[in-house]
Amino acid sequence: MTLRIYNTLSRRLQAFVPLEPGHVRMYVCGITVYDLCHLGHARMVLAFDLVYRWLRASGWRVTYVRNITDIDDKIIQRAVERGLAIRQLTDEMIGAMHRDFAALGLLPPTHEPRATDYVPQMLGLIERLEARGLAYQAAGGDMNFAVRRFAGYGKLSGKSIDELRAGERVDVASDKHDPLDFVLWKSTKPGEPEDARWSSRYGSGRPGWAIECSAMSCALLGEPFDIHGGGMDLQFPHHENEIAQSEGAQGPDGAGFVRTWMHNGFLNVDDTKMSKSLGNFFTIAEVLRQFDGETLRFFMLRTHYRSPFNFSDQVLEESRTALKRLYTALAAAGELPAPAAIDWTEPRAAAFKAAMDDDFNSPGAIAVLFELAGGANRGQAGDAMLLRSLGGVLGVLQQPPQAYLQGGAALDEAQVRERIAARAAAKAARDFALADRIRAELAAAGVELMDSAQGTTWVRA
Fold first, then answer.
1. For the CA atoms of the chain, what is the radius of gyration?
2. How many angstroms from the chain centroid is the CA of residue 242?
3. HEC sequence for 208-266
4. How far is Cα 313 from Cα 291, in angstroms, rounded to an integer?
5. How do beta strands 205-207 and 182-187 pair?
6. pTM of the predicted model, to two decimals?
7. Each residue's pLDDT tens digit, 98-136
8. In the 8-state DSSP scheme, what is residue 447?
9. What would the pLDDT profile of 418-440 be if each residue is shown by its tens digit?
10. What are phi and psi of 95, to 5 degrees?
11. Which of 257, 253, 244, 255 is nearest to 135 (CA)?
């Protein structure tokens, strides 16, 4: 089966064929680093980590670019509030971001460019737009993109230009020719710090948001490239603006910007949009204090990347229980040999591949994992080996089973074993009340005992 991807631009599933045989070039809009990453960020980066992993598992070489926006109104405001240089703030937040992403098991992208390192490329792009009559300097000094001069504006959002309104992060200023025009270069405003400005032929200022991604993606991937991704909230205006300025700079005879546009679904918390004002806003770090990163990853992979996603403690607990079932099946299989290459003609592997080739259908792929777990629990080593290998494609089930099953308990392994021995002694002395108290104490500490003919083992409750 050929990989098919839902292309937001065409609004349909399409067979995916990279522009360059054997090589996929992919850009994903990354994080604006003024604060800690939140669950919406986790949803987005995990969706495209899944895409990255499956493209590589399918045999393609992948150049994956995920940018960092390190200059922005919110960054400037936060740096001033904290009395920090902008670079101090962004370095701190990037470090926290990398810790969160490592806990989620994300593969590092091929390139992780910072916007501030590509200002010359952004200015070059603006100059080309100005030369083609698509950019103008407003009375206040900003360079703006003249939306109505670009014939294709609205093709990604699917709306005519008269239906569109200035959206999030698009400044509506009195000196714009049209409310839909968006800023390419922001002139320095009174009181802005020195480290928030660059010199240019348009005067002192800094880049607009959309121009950053056009410059970084094209500098690192060329034009056109295969896949551009991001959250559904970026479809308009951010990605619409990227298309306009990138294709506008090329001119009518250009090669185009991006072939396939991908957008992951919105995240809600308890069926309500996540919002600080509603008190249902969670950072990744906050969630990781209660749940391990692999559980959070598995939880998010159980929903298709394009579907709306609902976060709740109850569903996260259910995901932890489900992941525990898979690790329990691996533990039951005992010591396994080193993973071998996956035989994609094997029926379960073929079913997994068919699901992933159908627009990265991770819930369908995970259903195959549970089918294999049934065989692993019956002592079928081949099923256990395939379970581990296919789990690795999704970025799960790679820990030693006991390490996962026992991780996060309040007591360490030596303490648990001491209490298990004490319970065994109590049972041998027929002091069943003491044995029951020890079991209850361990349960309260997050330890679940499992008795069998071979003895007593334990897992995290």
1. 26
2. 20
3. CHHHHHHHHHHHHHCCCEEEEEEEHHHHHHHHHHHHHHHHHHHCCCCCCCEEEEEEECC
4. 10
5. antiparallel
6. 0.89
7. 999 999 999 999 999 999 999 999 999 999 999 999 999
8. E
9. 888 889 888 888 888 878 887 88
10. -60, -45
11. 244
